Amino acid sequence: MSTTELLFSRTDTELGSFAVRPLDPFADAELLHGWVTHPKASFWMMQDASLPDVEREYMRIAAHEHHQAFIGLHEGRPAFLMETYDPSELELVGLYDAQPGDVGMHFLVAPSDTPLHGFTRAVITTVMAAIFADPTTERVVVEPDVANTAVHALNEAVGFVPERQVTKPEKEALLSFCTRAQFEAATAVQGVSI
């Protein structure tokens, strides 16, 4: 798959075009290294990663049957990282009862010196719309750190409902779910076109 191939795109009425393309572990490693080691990415837990560490991590994901990574674009420029995974196989195995059509998700917005109002909400809306573009997706599952209150608010804004706290090896996480109907209802209330 080419890194120029767009897998999904949408236009945000205020912030313009957003798109998702495949991630190339080699071509994108330097870019990703700057993102995942930035102080604002502390919840990504790669603060001390070297460039080869980042390459290895994304080569591992690229080779994994149940984990995928993508680069998100804003107006054609790399602006966020998106990962999806099968929560019945990774991350949440044994921590909840997985259902057919569940998709796990992580996202990371690139650091910026000139933040745009509403940008992170537009990113998570794009991520969710891309995941739900697959008709087999019934529900998105997330497990952010319980201390990451900023992402809890963003998740709630796009329809996630927290279920309970779960203990993972690396963190205490807030297990939350968002069905297609919940996402569509949340974005309709905001007047967001997906």
Provide a descriptive summary of the structure in words.
By secondary structure, the protein is of the alpha+beta class. 28% of the residues lie in helices and 29% in strands. The protein contains five helices and eight strands. It has an eight-stranded mixed β-sheet with strand order 1-2-3-4-5-6-8-7, sandwiched between helices. Helix 1 (29-36) packs across helix 2. The chain is globular and about 35 Å long.
Notable features of this structure?
5 helices; 8 strands; globular; alpha+beta; 194 residues
Look at the structure and give the mean pLDDT.
92
The oligomerization state is single chain
Class derived from helix and strand content: alpha+beta
Helix content: 25-40%
Strand content: 25-35%
Write down the secondary-structure element order.
EEHHEEEHEHEEH
Q: Could you give the distance between the termini? A: 25 Å
Task: Describe the protein's topology.
Blueprint: E1 8-12, E2 16-22, H1 29-36, H2 51-63, E3 67-74, E4 77-85, E5 102-109, H3 119-132, E6 139-142, H4 149-157, E7 161-167, E8 172-179, H5 180-190
Parallel strand pairs: 5-6
Antiparallel strand pairs: 1-2, 2-3, 3-4, 4-5, 6-8, 7-8
